[in-house]
Amino acid sequence: MRVFVTGASGWIGSATVDELLTAGHEVVGLARSDTSAAAVAAKGAVAHRGDLDDLGSLRAGAGDADAVVHLANKHDWGNPAETDRAERAAVGTMLETLAGSDRPFVIANGLSGIVEGRSVVETDPSPAVGPGSDRGGSENLALEYAVQEVRASAVRFAPSVHGRGDWGFVTWLAGAARKHGVSGYIGDGSTTWSAVHRTDAAQLIRLAIEQAPAGSRLHAVAEESITTKAIAQALGEALGLPVTSIDPSEADEHFGVVGHFFGTTMTAKSDITRDLLGWKPTGPGLIEDILAGAYA
């Protein structure tokens, strides 16, 4: 298949491009800069210039593709309303282009805010509905297009999609540890996260394109529950730093933007995903990755 990938030069996107090419697919990657275009082309994919605000470029990329993977997001923490607006407009444009074609559309989402008090399961709908909601309600918007003959599925990623070269949450935690000279966890460290290795996440995206039925919610989760204290202890050992508790009132100051997420339990199960697609994660676990020096 010819697969159009937004976010193709990103952390998950670049691994997805590798996975798709290895499986024999042709990849066209959205690139908003010369640097991104060069990175996409260096992998053997075709660079397609544009960004999430260039709806004409998105329409053309989706229109020429046999499948679409949407991984890009503005992630503008200072202006979340703009991030949500751009996300919904971009997703809506690509879905309208695919309507009536029965072509696959895979959209990325996270686990935060879906349910409280237990691990998220695939049958839990996202509460984000409509333009004013988180990510512009793009997951629900995509799944609604199943009735318009788009084979849409949502892949919800664990808060840690880890590996060597990661620039996500765990990298920020490592940066805070270096800055303050201690590897911290919040309160008693009982808050828990799910995790998945980047290569396993990429494999799931490929399987979703190839096999997922329309309307599927899929979980890129290899490890359901890791305590934040265990993460801090592993970072402390890898970085040669002491490990300490950070008072919740000081978390934002100590950890920065990631403090809110580090103090929030974000876990999910992936049993339905594994049974549906035969997905079998084989990458190292998060603690194993940290102790092996992925963040050192």
UniProtKB/TrEMBL annotation:
Among Gene3D superfamilies, the record links this protein to:
NAD(P)-binding Rossmann-like Domain
Pfam families membership: Epimerase
GO CC terms of this entry: cytoplasm
Residues of the NAD-dependent epimerase/dehydratase domain: 3-82
Source organism superkingdom: Bacteria
**What GO molecular function terms would the record report?**
aldehyde dehydrogenase (NAD+) activity
Which InterPro entries does the protein's record reference?
Epimerase_deHydtase, NAD(P)-bd_dom_sf, NAD(P)-dependent_oxidoreduct
Q: Which PANTHER family match?
A: NAD(P)-BINDING DOMAIN-CONTAINING PROTEIN-RELATED, PROTEIN YEEZ
Q: From the Swiss-Prot or TrEMBL record, give the protein name.
A: SDR family oxidoreductase
Q: Which organism is it from?
A: Kribbella antibiotica
Q: Lineage from the top down?
A: Bacteria, Bacillati, Actinomycetota, Actinomycetes, Propionibacteriales
